[in-house]
Amino acid sequence: MAGPSIDALGQFSLTTGLGPLGRAVDFTNSNEAMLAAAVIIVGIFAVGLRARALIPGRGQAVVELLYEFVHNMCVDTIGEEGLRFFPLVFTIFSFVLLGNLLGLFPYFFAFTSHIAVTLSLALFVFVFSTGVGFYTHGFRFFKFFVPHGVPSWLLPLLVPIEIISYLSRPVSLSVRLFANMTAGHVMWEVFAGFMLMLVASFGVFGAFASVVPLGLNVALAALELLVAGLQAYVFAILTCLYLHDAVHMH
Amino acid sequence: MRRIATIALLSLSPAAAFAGGTMPQMDFANPLTSYQVLWMAVILVALYLLLARWGLPEMGKVLANRASVIAQDLAAARAAKITADQAVAALNATMSQARGAAGAEVAQAVAKAKAEATAQAAALAASLDQKLAESEMRITAARNAAMAAIKPVAAEAAASILQKLTGSAPGADILGQRVDDALAAGKAA
């Protein structure tokens, strides 16, 4: 097919980043965005912690807002014991949030749109929370799969269901984030591709008509901003929920 | 025409965009897919250590400091309020005491003034009564004097009138007697 075509998936392909050094150690363009996210997180902490004022300035207020948001999420969801996991939840939340937000900018790689990334994060959360469960309760943690107040003849049916639902946690956790980010970026690319195709096919009229996909992309940008924040929040709160289950067993 | 058909198809289903190529995300044969996870682990461990050892505890200190300052200020404010309440109570007590004393003093002054006024009024009334009595005495004396003076004049006038009318005048004794009678009758009337 002549003329412009829509390559909605090219934006997700991995290359190496950071020039020849990156090529030597297989540091990918995805890792460049991760590094940028980590540097930004540490950077806002450095800026926010400069004054340590009683009445916070703008930079400090941003860090305090993030800190208290995740802090409250940990305490409300896991309980006071949840503060042990606060740095972990904060790291995951800020990393995913910054990854989602950076991905919204042109020329930035959205690393949360890679299933390998989200599945690794989700598997880590799954393995870690299961480990916490066994560490806290020993082998009694297996009781987690036996629902309370259920007639014993139903147990052979319910225990496998509980186990399957527990094992499906990393899948749902990772696919939710991956699918949301991928779908948004594909939609953007498709509508942007429409504009090029309209101009190529219909000339001046097509240029005028391409206002429609442009408007759709503008609206989509607002939606994607919401999705970026929401999915980071969902990932973090589910992490907290799994840790709550591990600590409290229901 | 094929292009228009492509646009129509894509506008109906963005999923058609996938038809062309495979998803790079699913290309696990690409070694970069696994390497990005390896590097992510490195970056995340570094980020975790920085946040857990430095960023979050430092921020926590700032927030704890603020909480303690607020708590101290609240305690100070509560202490100040208690002091202020005590001062207000003392003020109220003093005020009511002073009000009572002032009231008593005012009542005393009023009673004194009333007594003085009564005494003055009584003295005034006494002196006025005295003056009135003196005046009455003077009036009575003047009237008596006038009455005494009127007798000879009346007798003389009566004698001259009778002289002119009758040509003769009764004796001075009779005229005097009659004038006395008339004056007595006039007084009685």
UniProtKB/TrEMBL annotation, chain A:
<feature type="transmembrane region" description="Helical">
    <location>
        <begin position="218"/>
        <end position="243"/>
    </location>
</feature>
<keyword id="KW-1003">Cell membrane</keyword>
<dbReference type="InterPro" id="IPR023011">
    <property type="entry name" value="ATP_synth_F0_asu_AS"/>
</dbReference>
<dbReference type="InterPro" id="IPR000568">
    <property type="entry name" value="ATP_synth_F0_asu"/>
</dbReference>
<comment type="function">
    <text>Key component of the proton channel; it plays a direct role in the translocation of protons across the membrane.</text>
</comment>
<keyword id="KW-0813">Transport</keyword>
<dbReference type="Pfam" id="PF00119">
    <property type="entry name" value="ATP-synt_A"/>
</dbReference>
<feature type="transmembrane region" description="Helical">
    <location>
        <begin position="34"/>
        <end position="51"/>
    </location>
</feature>
<keyword id="KW-0812">Transmembrane</keyword>
<keyword id="KW-0138">CF(0)</keyword>
<protein>
    <recommendedName>
        <fullName>ATP synthase subunit a</fullName>
    </recommendedName>
</protein>
<keyword id="KW-0472">Membrane</keyword>
<keyword id="KW-0066">ATP synthesis</keyword>
<comment type="similarity">
    <text>Belongs to the ATPase A chain family.</text>
</comment>
<keyword id="KW-0375">Hydrogen ion transport</keyword>
<keyword id="KW-1133">Transmembrane helix</keyword>
<feature type="transmembrane region" description="Helical">
    <location>
        <begin position="115"/>
        <end position="135"/>
    </location>
</feature>
<feature type="transmembrane region" description="Helical">
    <location>
        <begin position="186"/>
        <end position="212"/>
    </location>
</feature>
<dbReference type="InterPro" id="IPR045083">
    <property type="entry name" value="ATP_synth_F0_asu_bact/mt"/>
</dbReference>
<dbReference type="InterPro" id="IPR035908">
    <property type="entry name" value="F0_ATP_A_sf"/>
</dbReference>
<feature type="transmembrane region" description="Helical">
    <location>
        <begin position="85"/>
        <end position="109"/>
    </location>
</feature>
<keyword id="KW-0406">Ion transport</keyword>
UniProtKB/TrEMBL annotation, chain B:
<dbReference type="Pfam" id="PF00430">
    <property type="entry name" value="ATP-synt_B"/>
</dbReference>
<keyword id="KW-0375">Hydrogen ion transport</keyword>
<keyword id="KW-1133">Transmembrane helix</keyword>
<keyword id="KW-0138">CF(0)</keyword>
<comment type="similarity">
    <text>Belongs to the ATPase B chain family.</text>
</comment>
<keyword id="KW-0472">Membrane</keyword>
<keyword id="KW-1003">Cell membrane</keyword>
<feature type="signal peptide">
    <location>
        <begin position="1"/>
        <end position="19"/>
    </location>
</feature>
<comment type="subunit">
    <text>F-type ATPases have 2 components, F(1) - the catalytic core - and F(0) - the membrane proton channel. F(1) has five subunits: alpha(3), beta(3), gamma(1), delta(1), epsilon(1). F(0) has three main subunits: a(1), b(2) and c(10-14). The alpha and beta chains form an alternating ring which encloses part of the gamma chain. F(1) is attached to F(0) by a central stalk formed by the gamma and epsilon chains, while a peripheral stalk is formed by the delta and b chains.</text>
</comment>
<feature type="transmembrane region" description="Helical">
    <location>
        <begin position="35"/>
        <end position="56"/>
    </location>
</feature>
<keyword id="KW-0812">Transmembrane</keyword>
<keyword id="KW-0406">Ion transport</keyword>
<comment type="function">
    <text>Component of the F(0) channel, it forms part of the peripheral stalk, linking F(1) to F(0). The b'-subunit is a diverged and duplicated form of b found in plants and photosynthetic bacteria.</text>
</comment>
<keyword id="KW-0732">Signal</keyword>
<comment type="function">
    <text>F(1)F(0) ATP synthase produces ATP from ADP in the presence of a proton or sodium gradient. F-type ATPases consist of two structural domains, F(1) containing the extramembraneous catalytic core and F(0) containing the membrane proton channel, linked together by a central stalk and a peripheral stalk. During catalysis, ATP synthesis in the catalytic domain of F(1) is coupled via a rotary mechanism of the central stalk subunits to proton translocation.</text>
</comment>
<keyword id="KW-0066">ATP synthesis</keyword>
<dbReference type="InterPro" id="IPR002146">
    <property type="entry name" value="ATP_synth_b/b'su_bac/chlpt"/>
</dbReference>
<protein>
    <recommendedName>
        <fullName>ATP synthase subunit b</fullName>
    </recommendedName>
</protein>
<keyword id="KW-0813">Transport</keyword>
<dbReference type="InterPro" id="IPR050059">
    <property type="entry name" value="ATP_synthase_B_chain"/>
</dbReference>
